[in-house]
Amino acid sequence: MKKPIVCCDFDGTITKNDNIIRIMKQFAPSEWTKLKDGVLSKEITIQEGVGQMFQLLTSDQKDAIQSFILEDTEIREGFKQFVDEVKKADIPFYVLSGGMDFFVYPILEDIVDRDNIYCNHASFGEDHIQIEWPHACDTQCQNGCGCCKPSIIRKLTHEDDFIIMIGDSVTDVEAAKHADLTFARDYLLNECQELGLVHKEYDTFIDLHAQFVQIKEVKEWQTQRANAGRS
Ligand code: MG
Ligand code: ZN
After folding, report:
1. How confident is the model at residue 170, as a pLDDT?
2. pLDDT in tens, 143-189
3. Are 121 and 131 in contact (CB under 8 A)?
4. What is the pTM of this model?
């Protein structure tokens, strides 16, 4: 029987808001919107756009950004309990985030081990914030993802894993294509419907928890997957 492994997005999934957007709105000069538009219209890659956005910020803003984010980031309901349950069931749980370590780690402190978090690295050694990309695209991805979720999934998983993806947005679509089952909301939900990917809808981690408990046996998911006729 296949072994379940859970890969979970961060911004907009674990947290209710997109933290990069919030940081830029609060701290960056207005040029950042041009970069955001460039990313959305795919004129520049996420890696280029996000890297350049952070270069608009000075390194001495680090503490202010960190406290701003920690003060009012809202974590989606039921997340901690969900992680505890998954841990108890011995199911590997990974966070795959396009965010930066200096705010992702503190938000997930005491909930998810750092070893299980894949995100970008912000460095504050120069005048402006520099982003390093320890999980950039492998040779099979040319999208300039920055933090490349499909590449991480290829690295983390094996043939006999049953990959469960949890996400919300455009950066999760490629990962969802690699997953056996995707829990989706918002933009990702529409994409899963359009692409015919095997998926379930969720709103909070309480929903997810209920679905995990309810289904329990991964075997049932596999049957559902086969019935859905996934190629
Ligand atoms: Mg997201
Ligand atoms: Zn990539």
Report:
1. 86
2. 999 999 999 999 999 999 999 999 999 889 999 999 999 999 999 99
3. yes
4. 0.91
Instruction: Report the separation in Å between the CA atom of 85 and the middle of ligand 1, taken as the mean of its atom positions.
Output: 22
| CATH number reported for the structural domain that contains residue 147 in this entry | 3.40.50.1000
CA of 140 to the centre of ligand 2 (A): 8
The predicted-structure confidence for 31-71, as pLDDT tens digits, reads as follows: 999 999 999 898 999 999 999 999 999 999 999 999 999 99
State in Å: Cα 129 to ligand 1 middle. 22
Expressed as residue numbers, the domain containing 180 is 3-16+75-121+133-230
Flag whether 24 is in a domain: no
Ligand nearest, relative to CA of residue 148: 2
Tokens standing for 201? 């809808």
Ligand 1 centroid, distance to 117 Cα (angstroms) = 14
The answer to whether position 178 is within a domain reads: yes
- Looking at the 3D structure of the chain, how many domains does it have? 1
**R_g of the chain computed on alpha carbons:** 18
Say how many C-beta atoms besides its own lie within 10 A of residue 216's C-beta.
11
